[in-house]
Amino acid sequence: MPTPKEILKQYWGFDQFRPLQEDIIRSSMDGDDALALLPTGGGKSICFQVPALCMDGVCLVISPLIALMKDQVANLKKREIAAAAIYSGMALREIDRILDNAAYGGLKFLYLSPERLTTDLVRERIKKMKVCLLAVDEAHCISQWGYDFRPPYLQIAEVRELMPKTPVLALTATATPEVVIDIQEKLLFKRKNVFQKSFSRPNLAYVVLNEENKRAKLLDILRKVKGSGVVYARNRKMTKDIARFLVENKVSADFYHAGLTPDERSNKQEAWISGRTAIMACTNAFGMGIDKPDVRTVVHLDLPDSLEAYFQEAGRAGRDGKKSFAVLLYAEEDKRSLERNLELAFPPLQDIRQVYRALGSYFQLAVGAGEFQTFDFDIGDFCKNFQLEVIKAHSCLRILEQEGWIVLTESVWMPASFMVLVTREQLYDYQLRNPGLDPVIKSLLRLSEGGFQHFVPVNEAAVARLLKTTQDKVLPAIQRLHNERIIEYRPLKDKPQLTFTKERVDSSNLTIDIDSYKLRKERQRKRIDKAINYATSAQCRSQTLLEYFGEEGPTCGVCDVCLGRTKSELSTDDFERYKLKVKQLIVAERITEQQLKEAFSSNRQQAVIQTLTYLMDEGLVTVERGILTWRDKP
Questions:
Q1: pTM (predicted TM-score)
Q2: 318 and 296 Cβ atoms separated by less than 8 Å
């Protein structure tokens, strides 16, 4: 078998691994269970993809993020590595074909959601597979102590009984010490085995600025720090508003959120990665799986509700090791907003039952039916139909998901596809009897190879162009072929999906684990308190983050606290005004610190001294033989 370095060179073109990667790979190849704790951008996927390619058999990859699964499968296929993913919304026939490929040697990587892994269909097929490695991505989801608990993760350990000799590699970017312990226990590690890269980011300056006028300060930051940047906003509307504001002020910017079409998301992302767009205003839907090394600035316009989320998002800056900034613009309203959101996120039981009952009516699902049925889900339309508040409904859906009743996924784009259901002889006979459909059938087969064996993508617009007609005329013909069971046709999907993981029950019989519910609410309250403390305390920002993740470290020397700005009673606006006046005086004439102080009234002199101290700390002012000198570029 090839060595890990040979695999790395052959498929990725790299000569050396990043720190810890080779140790993690060797551990899996030696048959040991391991937890890889690597911060955002640490190269987690390499840690399971390389050893799997060195071993005989298929690698099962468990991930809750459909977009990330699809992205990794696409990247593996580009490298001519056989990979596939099974997720909500796929036809049973397609799932069956993929599982067969995994069982009989046609796949090297099979990506599954944790919900899908625990189905009887998948478990029976796993018995036929030679599984060389079980990789569990976003492994923090297994812990109720974590910030994104998902009950189906708890059942992953049950699958280990089907492959007792297969090692497990759990991977995550963020985990507190108690979550690190919990992951290993819940996945039944044979022994504790953690590979942890330091959370310290010496090149990244964490800055918190107490600002009421956040847009003005954002503009100031982006004008001072040149290069690529990300601006995280609260909601979709705000991303668009911020991008428009920046463009109006001559800053190259665009917006991104999960509600865009696949083509829009792809085009915007590519423009930003290539540098044609400098700043991306986005929700937290942006950034997953994107390894852009030269991001100089990440700005948060609102305080995230956990330090795990903040650390991951802020950590997208400076992956190339060069000086970068993670800036949080904080206002007192952010604290009140988080506290309000906590109450909204944990609605009373009667509200949860009301939403569950409405789901059954919305999808016309009878009591006792629906287990593992998946539906397109438009929460706006759902709430409009049942006069529900969107925020309350979303919170109820999250509780139902955490209790294992449903699974919600982000928007999933699946191209239109079809598969021929009859033999070639039967199809030929059908064409003779239906000459009007013959050109459509020939065009489908010409543009989409392999339709007799499995589902293949179909571009209805391309079929229409080939036939020199319109798509409106082609679609009824394709639908007729589907209705007459000549083909199975699946239209394009681009909406979020909702899957019932259990058969529907009467809402009065809906059970919620109250103790677990209270525990999650209390843990979330503590996470919010930690996030607020990060924004408001006078402790080094880097130290605060390191301590949260169980690590010790010296003060960073580059955050706003270490530079002394936080000790000031000056508002940012006052500081900027004094800074401008100080600059004017220093540039105008040779002046000493004492003379500068005396140029202001006595009630302003303390503020001047504080301003001058900050400017010296930042290298904008130096002293040479007692004379103050201004330097525009410290």
A1: 0.74
A2: yes
